[in-house]
Amino acid sequence: xxxxxxxxxxxxxxxxxxxxxxxPRGNTIGDYNVRQSFETGYRFAxxxxxxxxxxxxxxxxxxxxxxxxxxxxxxRNGKGKYxxxxxxxxxxxxxxxxxxxxxxxxxxxxxxxxxxxxxxxYFNPGLTIAFGQHFQNLERRMQDHQFTLFPGKKIQFFGGFxxxxxxxxxxxxxxxxxTRGNIFPFFENVRRKQNEFRFGGQAQFAGMKLFWxxxxxxxxxxxxxxxxxxxxxxxxxxxxxxxxNFRRDHPYHGSTPHWxxxxxxxxxxxxxxxxxxxxxxxxxxxxFDEVANGAVRGGARNVQTLVFGDARRPVTAANLSFSILxxxxxxxxxxxxxxxxxxxxxxxxxxxxxxxxxxxxANFQFLGIRAVTNSTLLDVALKPWLSVQGGYQFSDRRxxxxxxxxxxxxxxxxxxxxxxxxxxxxxxxxxxxxxxLTIVADGEIGRQNRPFYTxxxxxxxxxxxxxxxxxxxxxxxxxxxxxxxxNSVSLFRHSSRARNYTVDGSWTPSTRFxxxxxxxxxxxxxxxxIAYFLNFNQVDRDSSFFLSNVHAAHAGVRTVVAKKLDVxxxxxxxxxxxxxxxxxxxxxxxxxAQVFPLTFVSPQVRLSYRINEKLRGNFGYQHYDYTEKILxxxxxxxxxxxxxxxxxx
Amino acid sequence: MTSRNRLxxxxxxxxxxxxxxxxxxxxLVCLLANAQSPKSSPPPPGYAGSIMCRGCHPDIxxxxxxxxHFKSTTDEKLKFEQKGCESCxxxxxxxxxxxxxxxxxxxFSQMQPKKILDNCLQCHTQQMGRANIRRSSHTTADxxxxxxxxxxxxxxxxxxxxxxxxxxxxGCHQNIRAQFSMPVKHRVNEGFMQxxxxxxxxxAEAPTWKMSARPRMMAQGLQNEEPCMKCHVxxxxxxxxxxxxVRVDGCASCHVAHGGMNxxxxxxxxxxxxxxxCHNGAGNFGRQGDGIQLxxxxxxxxxxxxxxxxxxHARIHGSNSxxxxxx
Lengths: 649, 327
Known about the structure:
- Chain A has 649 residues and is mostly beta strands.
- Helix content of chain A is 3%, strand content 73%.
- Chain A is built from 3 helices and 29 strands.
- In chain B, helix 10 (165-172) crosses helix 11 (174-180).
């Protein structure tokens, strides 16, 4: 166990402490065994530089926290009166930006209750987005409850509830009063709420399992946008438009009832079958009410926009999988999937300018996607140390759209349909030439006709390989994954190349010492033909080029000093060295967007001192250094850490 | 009103209270039936019973009451061979008589991956999440149950994982590990979420976005869409004006999922290049191959405000009130 724990060296945030406290075997209370720990302390952060960017990336701040708790209660004989197991874990309670709690209560063969609760304090200044005017300081709370009853060995019922609330202040922008006007930021009070209720069951009969679920998702958004004072235009050079005040209400409510049915068998000796059907029917109603008062080119202007309507999205999916196992060495799997999404919506837009109704526009929109796919996979174990696999996939997709517009009797309609097909093949092998060494390689090649988007996969191939050598206390692995896509047609080109190379290893010679290190190189370059306007002149045949070369490294060492002090030191570094993209374009705006070199480094150290069997004192420090190479406006350096006690009682 | 009459209410709609009572009665009957006196069965040939294992494996048996498999030892409805150690390791009598010979028992450390899978799936097919395990990418790469789960030395009380989930996944997916260490990322290292929130490591149905080929192991959302919508519920819609890319090729058209160097997990450092790469009017693409709509002539690329597309197109994921996502 200690060896395992010592090998846990993935660079997490510095707190909570991972070292255990208390008696490993726990305490016996009546018929139950109890293990618990509780860590509380003070977290601190000191930020130099762009605090908004720090809060977007890291967001740990000062204050007292319950950094982590853990509780497990197990009945020793498996026959507890009310429960046999309770597991409760929490993290970051008290005001950390990432708070988490999970609980499970179970009585064997009777019931099980599971809870997950999370809170995310999301701060994002969006500095490189919309001139920093899409700032968000939101809090998202999510919870999920599931209660399962086991009335019999072959039957179970469950009911569940999920909630997802998001609220807080934000900024958004609006373009007023026409295309020659200006852009004004305004405040938003974001309020979004989703609840989902579900129930269902599972039954076993005739060697088959039947699962069914009925559920309802309810969503409502009552975000309000407003500006009670004269607006500050984003473009100071455009002086023809002023905004005195602004208000926007756009309630958006609806539900998504859904069904899921699954029938499958796994127990048969030579085949398995899995049939699945799902249907959901999303529906949303909305009203949009916006009032803007200001002036355009010297004349007073007030505009009220009223939109109402509803949108529907029924989604049906069906899947059938079966695997044939003719011998113990051969597996043939086939999967057929059908999927249909139909999105349609109506909206009526009325606009009043200076108190006069000047337009009423009715819209109808439809977007339908239907896809059918079939894939077959053959897996053969030629030898105990050598397996090969190969597969083929065929997909057919049809996309239809209708756009209907009625503008005061003038009707404009556009319909479209495009279908495309994919043929893809896969192949791979697994090799274990000597004990401890595993070599795995796989590749895929695909050809798609008429992809919908210019950046979609068309003529692509992917290749990956991984070699790992592992002994009891030592492990080293190397991996590569490459993906290349060409989506070029006459007068247009798009290509992307992603190449990843990684190497890592760990060594745990004793319970008192462990070391872990790795290096990753992530390369991506894409070239895409683009067209745009420069002062009303269309420019064709230019290119958008993007190049990223990320060199990432991590290292960590953990040791135990004098059986009392656990010391961990770790380091994580990400450096995008970018590169040169000269030659693809001469347009300054495009040249500036070709690369984004930066460095993000985060070393940390953690000390955990075992005061006695039930108490530990902990200290941790983590440094963050974010440095952009071009503009450097978002750079920051942060010193974060914590001081805590971890105890069991 | 009699029960019969209650069922004859207008439109033959059953009374909800009546149905609820019947449901509770049914569940109670099921519970009581399950709680009846136990039946004992004699040990079949070759089986020794879990109690015999304690002598040589005291470390495992002493803490086994914390193990999820412990419940099998106390379930009197199960057959002898379905209980305790021998339910997974098979008959142990020969193993004991041979003084611990591993070849005389089902020893997972000595088994081929496919055999391990077969063995665990004898019981572990209750959850629908494992319905696609035979064709999952993990299975085809010989990553089977014991690669991630440690039955007797688990580091997590739930799911009996050999290590915390992120460490397990990072063990093979080092390139993903690097992405989660980047400045803009989903909060996996911070403990707020974990890989299985979006992925099903046991295999999944074909994705309903892109061309149903890749990615392969996604835990799909409520409407069979990308798992992103499980949390980002406001982006799900439906909207009158859908940004078709979200549904046709998915969120990955514009975003990277794990982590990146660019704001809001965008694939490009500046938004306008991302938009222009599709909105370039190139033939053969889009609706009826007539190209994805080009930006209008008023949008001169030399003007900074047109290099920040979403400053005006603020509802880029979908809108109910403007076809160009302006509001």
